[in-house]
Amino acid sequence: MLLQTVTPVSVLGTIVLFALFLSVTAHLAARNVLGDVDPRRALYVGPLPAVIGVVGGAFGLPEALIVAAALLVDAAMFAWSYDQPRRLVVGMTVIHAVITTLLGIVLLGIAVLLAARPG
């Protein structure tokens, strides 16, 4: 059994990569709802939900609580970053959750296939 140690650098790296992934999917969601938008605005959306996910998972909090908190913060960051009415913010948040889930499943599937290849 391989024993892995958790270091502050590995935690920070996980948060940064997850925040970038969430920022990319947030930009896709915003483009879907609003049309042509500045991609830099999406960089404000990703970090806080990423921190909630990683820290909540590290403390062993219930997944339903982590997802609910991340979605609420996600909506708040969309509202703050894009300054849109509540109805559009809800749409962006739902689309962001769907895109993130689908793209995450596809990337995980690719990783599993690559890890299972012979040789």
Mean pLDDT rating:
93
Taken together, the total number of domains comes to 1
Alpha carbon gap, first and last residue: 21 Å
Helix-strand pattern:
HHHH
Question: How would a textbook summarize the main sheet?
Answer: none
User: Fraction of residues in helices?
Assistant: over 70%
**Anisotropy-based shape:** globular
Sequence stretches where pLDDT stays below 50 over 5 or more residues: none
- Radius of gyration, whole Å: 16 Å
Q: Which structural class is indicated by helix and strand composition?
A: mainly alpha
Secondary structure tally, helices: 4
Portion of residues in beta strands equals: under 5%
SSE layout and pairing:
Elements: H1 8-34, H2 47-58, H3 63-82, H4 86-115
Keywords: Membrane, Transmembrane, Transmembrane helix
Transmembrane segments: 6-30, 94-116
Write a structural description:
With 119 residues, this protein is an all-alpha fold. It has one domain. Helices cover 75% and strands 0% of the residues. The protein is built from four helices and no strands. It has helices at 8-34, 47-58, 63-82, 86-115. The longest helix has 30 residues, at 86-115. It is globular and about 50 Å long.
Notable characteristics:
single chain; 119 residues; mainly alpha; 4 helices
How would you summarize what this structure contains?
The chain has 119 residues and is mostly helical.
